[in-house]
Amino acid sequence: MTQVLSAEEQSKDRFFQQLAKVAEEMVEEHGKDFAAGALVLAARWVAENRLGKPEDLQH
């Protein structure tokens, strides 16, 4: 039985695929430690609502 994904699920799947590709490229060029650190830092920025804001407005 094939499960049909909703539009939201399809969108999320595309983002996961993009993240996986970026992570693979970072590992290839700079190693696992860099890739893991960069992804954790990005997650922190998302959690702290710091994406797309000028540095002086982040604090």
Tell me what the structure shows.
The radius of gyration is 15 Å and the shape is flat. The chain has a domain at 26-50. The mean pLDDT is 91. The chain is built from 2 helices and no strands. It has helices at residues 7-30, 32-47. The relative contact order is 0.07. The chain has 59 residues and is an all-alpha fold.
Distance between the termini: 51 Å
Tally the helices: what do you get?
A: 2
Uncertain runs: none
Order of helices and strands: HH
Largest sheet: none
What's the quaternary structure here? Answer: single chain
Radius of gyration: 15 Å
Structural class: mainly alpha
Helix content: 55-70%
How many E strands?
A: 0
Strand content is: under 5%
Shape: flat
* Rounded average pLDDT: 91
